[in-house]
Input
Amino acid sequence: MNTSHSFDGQFEFKGRAKTWSLIMILVGVVGLLAGFLTGNGERTFADLLLNGYYISCVCICGIFFCAVQYVAQAGWSTAVLRVPQAFAKVLPYAGLILLAIIVAGLFLTHQGPNEEGKITELPYLYKLWALKGVTLKGNENYDAIITAKSGYLNKTFFLTRLVIYLGSYALIGRMLVKYSQNEDELGGMFNYNKSFKMSVLFLLIFGFTVPLFAFDTIMSLEAHWFSTMFGWYNFAALWVSGLSVITLSLILLRKAGYMQWVTDDHLHNLGQLMFGFSVFWTYLWFAQFLLTWYANIPEEAAYFYRRWEPQFKPWFWLNIVINFLAPLLTLMSRDSKRKVAVLQVACVILICGHWLDYWQMIMPGTIGVSGGTEWYNILSPIDIAVFVGFAGLFVLMFGTALSRFKSLIPKKHPLLEESLHHHI
Output
């Protein structure tokens, strides 16, 4: 096999890719302005949270991918590591954007109905537990359930936790990138061994905190409800959507003439991971739904009851069709995972499908059925425009981060030759 590639070329982020990313950002800005100026502030904040959370999860997945490869001492993935490493470089900015959205949503208020239907001053996000007076007995907003959870669900502790989660992920991601770049300069095993140890630390922290990250950011939007499976369900969505973005990025970079050492065998491996963890996501989706339906405990069933409103029910079922049946039918066979066109379509389907999955998690508990009278108009053009804008923002940040690597491959990684000769 010919492996005589030049590893010294840098990625240049310019031309159509950069132009289109800026156009997409402009579409998102127009969508945000339309949302706020037409009195849809609550929906617009929900869209900001949805997309800020999504791109943060994709970036976290990049660090998780790198950490898993180092701890497993996997050789096949060495050739593709620069893409998830670029995601790691984007996380500090994505995390700051998410934190800014959450802080604004907590402290900016508007007039709206509380749980009892009374018009009061509501925060744009987390209106169940961040509502003024919700823990004061005798106040019209008093809620005994939220009061019992107020030791955990209060603004100071809530924001502190989010800073710790995102800060620790970003710091370790930065260290992994730094060690990889140092390895390119110095060679040897010193930086590889440091990457291994840092990856072990990341997986330990990540394993304990990723469910809490999902509980805080998404589940607490409906703070009367709880599910111990929700954190792992979100992890599965994070992993599948992140793998899809990694794979799509590699396909597009290869088409643009970069990373020609990435073969169909590498893409096959990524396709296997996408397929396998789509099934894992489905298992968690079904288990959470089935156990809640079977037990029929009111404080648990309320979550799915909202999603069975006529406006949301078709989207609820479309979610499982897109994120399970689509990868099942397109990626099950060996040949399909080795056809770049098929794999590219599967990536796009899963990226959009898990956006819909997050939309299903967020919208019923924020805007409720007020967003539209029919299922086909509950999904607003504002939702789509903001998604396009954040996609453009991610492309801009990712392309810029990738262009700052001196080489698009860890050229002195000890397992590089194994990756270049990878064949399955």
About this structure: The chain has two domains: 41-224, 229-379. The CA atoms of residues 319 and 357 lie 6 Å apart. The mean pLDDT is 93. The longest helix spans residues 41-72.
